[in-house]
Amino acid sequence: MKLKICGLRDKDNIRKIAEMRPDYLGFVFYKASPRYAGDILDADTLNELDEGLKKVGVFVNEDISKVKDIALAYNMDVIQLHGSESPEYCRKLGEEKFEIIKAFNPVTYNDFLTMKEYSGSCDYFLLDNRGKMAGGSGQKFNWEILDKYDLDVPFFLSGGIGPGDSEDILSMNYENMTAIDINSRFEIVPGVKNLALVEEFVNKIRIK
């Protein structure tokens, strides 16, 4: 099971989290987010990270040219889109050799039908709970809906995953669930992770 740790912005916190060897680190470039990293993130810090650790830039309805500029400046490997971006928008960014993650907030099976339109435009889907603002709510959606996921695009499970959820996640057996995404439930303050909680969770989830 791959692991993405998102919403990082503090230099020392980033380095210590990276030492735990997650598969992805996420950095938010959406100014309305309390985890917005664009004002303090140091590109040199990211360049020092292990090459096997994929860096994910998170954007919301941003101009494509600006997404590309930011992603290149910070040497991002993956672009995660959390707004109403179209399949064509996703395709255009994918042509720039970035992996593309498109976030969705599924409530019913019909939401999976909508996602199907993006199947040829994204490398992964990220399934999250709908919040008051773009970027998730820090709460779980109804995981039972995953029983009806029948798309061929692998997905990241996100939305309110906390330190006590490792056993439930390890019991899941969804063929296309490729990674889990943790964020706010592991924080001291927005953008800074509790290292002890993250390390304990990483150790538990790595047994699968």
Description:
The chain is of the alpha/beta class and 208 residues long. It has a single domain (2-205), classed as Aldolase class I (TIM Barrel, Alpha-Beta Barrel). Helices cover 26% and strands 21% of the residues. It has helices at residues 11-18, 43-47, 64-73, 87-94, 109-115, 166-170, 195-205, and strands at 2-5, 24-28, 54-59, 78-81, 99-104, 124-127, 155-157, 177-182, 187-189, 192-193. The strands form two sheets. An eight-stranded parallel β-barrel has the order 1-2-3-4-5-6-7-8. It starts with a strand and ends with a helix. The mean pLDDT is 93.
Write down the Rg: 16 Å
C-alpha termini separation: 6 Å
Shape: globular
So, CATH architecture? Alpha-Beta Barrel
Strand fraction? 15-25%
SSE order and pairing:
Elements: E1 2-5, H1 11-18, E2 24-28, H2 43-47, E3 54-59, H3 64-73, E4 78-81, H4 87-94, E5 99-104, H5 109-115, E6 124-127, E7 155-157, H6 166-170, E8 177-182, E9 187-189, E10 192-193, H7 195-205
Parallel strand pairs: 1-2, 1-8, 2-3, 3-4, 4-5, 5-6, 6-7, 7-8
Antiparallel strand pairs: 9-10
